[in-house]
Predict the 3D structure of the following.
Amino acid sequence: MIGVETKNINDVRASFAAVMQKAARSSEIICRNGKRNDAEAVSIIATHVLDDILTAYTFSPEFYQANETSDFEVALTELNLYAYAATKEEAIENLLDLAEDYVTDFLADVEKYLRFPKQRKHYPYILRLAHAEGREAMRGLIFNGDM
Amino acid sequence: MGTCSFRDFEEVCRRLGLLCRVTGKGYIWEGIDQAGNLLRVSIHKHAGGRDIPAGTFHSMVKELGFANEQEFYRLLNNKRKNN
């Protein structure tokens, strides 16, 4: 790694307040649990920096209107979620409900979901939604004014 | 490409060995297929009992690991014959 500070877990433990302060000033610090290069590692990074990184993961909801039933359909392919309802607004609300359920499920059992390649790709999107402050913020992230 | 009844969709999920969880907001069908993939399909509770429109149905068929809707209906019809 180039230019990233790496510390042993014992050093981090001994100076945790200083490590936190440094991370809060936007530096990433890698904490290793062991001396080998392949030892378990954790990045300590400021939440606002993580949020900035996650902005690369954008949502592109797709809307359709079914010919047969006249239902409005909305697909969120980034998370493989699909909703339909009699009105577009109701379909959006239903999709937000399903997204909240998925975020809750995923974070409650993150190790399970990360074992599967397809769901692993969902993780940054899940984190982005999890960091949204409330349903309206989540709505803004997913639909970005496309409502 | 056509619609699918909610009941038929549930029947195929059962046939695939998926388990259904009911949350406050909907039904989540989840399980692992023979290739080791996690299959997960969620349907909002307000949609329960209504026909699944064509576009959503097509996407959900893919989520269940079928190549196309014919494969989905082949499994459904086999089940019916076996009943």
Q: What stands out?
A: Chain A has two domains: 5-45, 62-143. Residues 88-108 of chain A form the longest helix (21 residues). The mean pLDDT of chain A is 93.
